[in-house]
Amino acid sequence: MPQGVPTAIPDDGLTTRQRRNMPVLAVHTGDGKGKSTAAFGMAMRAWNAGMKVAVFQFVKSAKWRVGEESALTALGELHESTGQGGPVEWHKMGQGWSWLRANTDAAEDHAEAARAGWAEIARRLAAAEHDFYVLDEFTYPLHWGWIDTDDVVTALRERPGRQHVVITGRRAPQALIDSADLVTEMHKIAHPMDAGRKGQKGIEW
């Protein structure tokens, strides 16, 4: 797609503006590093455009605060104080799901917590509560069978309005890939850990 020009124009009866304003479902998958980083970069663009941004992190510990969380949370606070950009919400699985705080048993069950998280996201999608969603590491509960992929694909396909969704994680199910508008598979060519080097602040978190 050189210089942002589409390689083909479909005969779908839509204008260029209508196609440009269609919601996007993006999937970042593969074994390479950078899937979440790219998604959070897109979220920052969405914030700058004044969109309502919501991040839902699956698998990662509710106690682990990554650099992008600090940055996007600060941007959300900037919006609250100045009106610049858009509002930001950040939620983590387990005890980080605010809707599970009254149910500690469910919070301790990873599969149940993942299902509860998806149920809340599906509700928000149906209500069009946000403009831009990052479902970080969401492919794992799909791959493990904790959440039904067909239900997810249906909810995403039927989401109203112009809600953009970015899903990250390895081993994305084929049904999810087939339903996406934008799919990027990241391959590892080299990594510092190959040479025995541990993750570094500012690079890994």
What keyword list fits this structure?
205 residues; alpha/beta; Rossmann fold; 6-stranded parallel beta sheet; 38% helix; 14% strand; globular; Cob(I)yrinic acid a,c-diamide adenosyltransferase CobA; ATP binding; CblAdoTrfase_CobA
Can you tell me about this structure?
The protein is α/β, with parallel strands linked by helices and 205 residues long. It has a domain at 36-155: P-loop containing nucleotide triphosphate hydrolases (Rossmann fold, 3-Layer(aba) Sandwich), CATH 3.40.50.300. The chain is 38% helix and 14% strand. It is built from eight helices and six strands, in the order H-E-H-E-H-E-H-H-E-H-H-E-H-E. It has helices at 16-20, 35-48, 67-82, 104-108, 110-127, 139-143, 149-157, 174-179; strands at residues 25-29, 53-57, 88-92, 132-136, 164-168, 182-185. A six-stranded parallel beta sheet has the order 3-2-4-5-1-6. Strand 2 (53-57), helix 3 and strand 3 (88-92) form a beta-alpha-beta unit. Helix 2 packs parallel to helix 3.
